[in-house]
Design brief:
4-stranded antiparallel sheet; mainly beta; OB fold (Dihydrolipoamide Acetyltransferase, E2P); Biotin_lipoyl; elongated; Biotin_Carboxyl_Carrier/Decarb
């Protein structure tokens, strides 16, 4: 699970790093699982908290303002997108495309544009599937095999980790 908190520079701009740290500790203490990562940013006030709830469950995302009190219960699970079918429905021979680096995942060349691929599309080797931005550099994610897009695991604009599954392809002849 991931919770992100950010607010435009207003009343929260006066919050000190120590206050931000204290609020984050309160939030982390109430998480319903194992804490995986906490990221604090003082400029613009932002808190990124990631925790595990179950080993096979996808991580729902909830957005809270930085000045909001820590939640007393977990955020409601985000509805599962049709692009991510059940894990147990994976066909044999599945090729998993993973993130080659840590960065921000984008499924389209620009905001509002059509995604590079959608579930059900047939792709050829070298077809661009997505982009991962790291340090202002756009890194193309391409298919290595001819296949049908079976699942898209990452959400547009999501920060992805190295080797995180992004897209599943089922090879086709």
């Amino acid at each position: 699970m991931t919770t992100e908190a950010s607010e435009a520079p207003t009343a929260a701009a006066t919050m000190t790093v120590e206050e931000l740290r204290a609020q984050t500790r309160l939030l982390a203490g109430e998480l319903p699982g194992t804490l995986r990562r906490i990221t604090l940013r003082a400029g613009g006030i932002s808190v990124d908290v990631e925790w595990e709830t179950a080993p096979a469950a996808p991580a729902p995302v909830a957005v809270l303002p930085a000045s909001a009190p820590a939640p007393s219960a977990p955020a409601p699970a985000a509805p599962q997108s049709p692009a991510a079918p059940a894990e147990d429905a994976a066909p044999a021979g599945l090729v998993q495309v993973t993130a080659p680096l840590v960065g921000t995942y984008y499924q389209a060349p620009s905001p509002g544009a059509e995604p590079f691929v959608q579930v059900g599309d047939i792709v050829e080797p070298g077809t661009q599937l997505a982009v991962v931005e790291a340090m202002k550099l756009l890194n193309s994610i391409t298919a290595d095999v001819r296949g049908r897009v079976h699942a898209i695991h990452a959400q547009d604009g999501e920060v992805v980790e190295y080797a995180q599954p992004l897209i599943d392809l089922v090879p086709v002849d």
